[in-house]
Amino acid sequence: MLTDKRIRIIIGHYGSGKTEFSVNYAVKLASLGKKVALVDLDVVNLYFRSREKAKFLEGNGIKVIGGAIKASAVDIPSISSEVLTPLQDESYETVLDVGGDPAGARTLGRYKSFFIEGNYDMFFVLNANRPETQTVEKAKEYILKIQDVARAKVTGIINNTHLLKRTTVEDVLKGYDLAKKVSMETDIPIKYNSALESIASQLPLGLDGNIFPINLYMREEWML
Questions:
Q1: Is 176 exposed, middle or buried, given 0-12, 13-18 or 19+ CB atoms closer than 10 A?
Q2: Domain locations in the chain?
Q3: Whole-structure pTM over 0.85, yes or no?
Q4: pLDDT (tens digit, 9 = 90+) per residue, 68-100?
Q5: CA–CA separation, 65 and 84 (whole Å)
Q6: Any idea what DSSP says for residue 45?
Q7: Three-state DSSP class for 64?
Q8: Which of 16, 37, 47, 86 could be a cystine partner for 12, CB 3.0 to 4.6 Å?
Q9: How many CB atoms lie within 10 A of CB 134?
Q10: What is 75-100 written as a DSSP string?
Q11: Which residues pair with 65 in a beta bridge?
């Protein structure tokens, strides 16, 4: 498990659970003794960004790279030059949490030289409950737009269909059915089926892709 390429780009529509997966993925890598950097390249969404959990992540030995401007009273879209460090330094296992739409993915273009085919993975986080990606055609269109502006190919699909804490096994399997159809239409494999730990343990065997149990690190206890 987690035998992906050293540079992992995580993309997905707003509300797909892209950032939650990115954080869980980084934590998992760190728990395996890896030297990990989590890069927050989301300059579109102002909420639920991985940089908000910097203290927690750094406490788990993860280098967090966010905006170039560090101030509590402002939130200006910016990208730190530190991004180059984990891209260039091959001792890092790097996770890039990218903005949740084609415009957000445009930030990847400036790093195109690092995304040599076969040396990176770009995972599309699919949530079948999101209106923008709830059909095969919509999901395909979204993937094509992302690839076009990012100038990099999607190499894997992550089924992350959820209703937050109300998620059921049936929800995940509904998402799996959609992910399977998208996979067949695009020839992009399903890499992971992501679900809360309590749900992941109930998923049937034989699904395409690995089962990836997650915690809700990005949501406070009082949130639904």
A1: buried
A2: 7-214
A3: yes
A4: 444 443 444 456 679 999 999 999 999 999 876
A5: 10
A6: -
A7: strand
A8: 16
A9: 16
A10: ------GGGHHHHH-TTSEEEEEE-S
A11: 39
